[in-house]
């Protein structure tokens, strides 16, 4: 899409990735964030209606990545989440509709599925598609699904083309589960997750840019953005009871590299994110999956994309905590 692009959350992982990519391609792009950074052109909050309206002038497309995340649940109030994730999104949607913006892309999260992601003990792994109904687990998920629904409302009532991308985890920080961190090496955890619940930031950027281009013809769409899983629907029961056996069957030879590194596969996988709808609707071709990661590990290369390596770790909070990067609720 030609014309000015507004990127919210430009100081964050994805916001910076988008800003780097768009600037490198010589796009007219404006970065908005509450924090100053080399990729932030306008410092302010999306909850500030007047600020948002000023930033929206002359904009043709919006990439709305600004949000309070799951790690903020322990440090911010529920009202903070409403202010940023709901009011902030409403301000942007209203300003976008009033200014005739041609495409609005909202970055949501697979965390929006909440408790629907974990089936009862003894049940097969959850097969997560866009048809799964979210069950809010916390204020983060509740506010993200509310913002998604506002995007759908603005398409229906104001004819604003809106695409919602539910991204799986892509943060480079250590896992927020201390028990998991103590049991597995960080690289081991992230490699395992590429099988079912992780995506590289480069693939997310590609999906966002395709969503801008496709938004006018899509009208409204909501898509899961995660690395392509190697599993089939018939694997669900065994994934829950013996994940290593399924992985060995679907990705032959992974065991040798894991053994060389002293790594282990998770004994059980409780969910699988399915990205088929995003690939079909957006023409998206994600490159970074478990097979890609495994090949880079075998050759001694960094499995992350060059973009992910350039951005590195940011953290979610200024201070450090007793549990490291994350506060304890």
TrEMBL record:
Cited Pfam families: Epimerase
Organism in which the protein naturally occurs: Luteimonas galliterrae
Domain NAD-dependent epimerase/dehydratase: 5-214
Stored Gene3D superfamilies: NAD(P)-binding Rossmann-like Domain (3.40.50.720)
InterPro entries from the UniProt entry: Epimerase_deHydtase, Lipid_A_modif_metabolic_enz, NAD(P)-bd_dom_sf
Name listed for the protein in its UniProt record: NAD(P)-dependent oxidoreductase
SUPFAM superfamilies: NAD(P)-binding Rossmann-fold domains
């Amino acid at each position: 899409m030609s014309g000015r692009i507004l990127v919210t959350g430009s100081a964050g992982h994805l916001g910076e990735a988008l800003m780097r990519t768009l600037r490198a391609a010589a796009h007219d792009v404006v970065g908005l964030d509450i924090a100053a950074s080399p990729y932030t052109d306008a410092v302010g909050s999306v909850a500030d209606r007047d600020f948002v309206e000023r930033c929206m002038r002359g904009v043709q497309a919006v990439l709305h990545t600004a949000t309070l995340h799951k790690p903020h649940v322990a440090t911010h109030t529920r009202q903070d989440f409403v202010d940023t994730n709901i009011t902030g999104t409403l301000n942007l949607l209203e300003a976008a509709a009033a200014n005739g913006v041609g495409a609005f892309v909202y970055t949501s999260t697979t965390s929006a599925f909440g408790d629907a992601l974990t089936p009862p003990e003894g049940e097969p792994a959850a097969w997560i598609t866009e048809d799964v109904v979210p069950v809010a687990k916390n204020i983060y998920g509740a506010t993200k699904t509310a913002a998604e629904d506002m995007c759908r409302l603005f398409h229906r009532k104001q004819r604003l083309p809106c695409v919602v991308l539910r991204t799986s985890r892509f943060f480079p920080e250590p896992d927020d589960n201390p028990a998991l961190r103590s049991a597995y090496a960080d690289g081991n955890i992230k490699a395992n997750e590429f099988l079912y619940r992780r995506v590289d930031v480069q693939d997310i950027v590609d999906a966002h840019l395709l969503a801008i281009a496709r938004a006018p013809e899509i009208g409204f769409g909501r898509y899961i953005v995660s690395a392509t899983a190697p599993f089939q629907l018939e694997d669900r029961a065994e994934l829950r009871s013996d994940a290593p056996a399924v992985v060995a069957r679907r990705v032959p030879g992974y065991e040798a590299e894991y053994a060389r590194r002293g790594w282990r596969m998770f004994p059980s996988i409780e969910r699988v994110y399915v990205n088929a709808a995003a690939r079909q609707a957006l023409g998206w071709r994600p490159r970074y999956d478990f097979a890609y990661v495994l090949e880079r590990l075998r050759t001694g290369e960094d499995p992350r994309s060059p973009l992910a390596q350039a951005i590195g770790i940011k953290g979610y909070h200024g201070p450090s905590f007793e549990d490291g990067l994350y506060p304890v609720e």
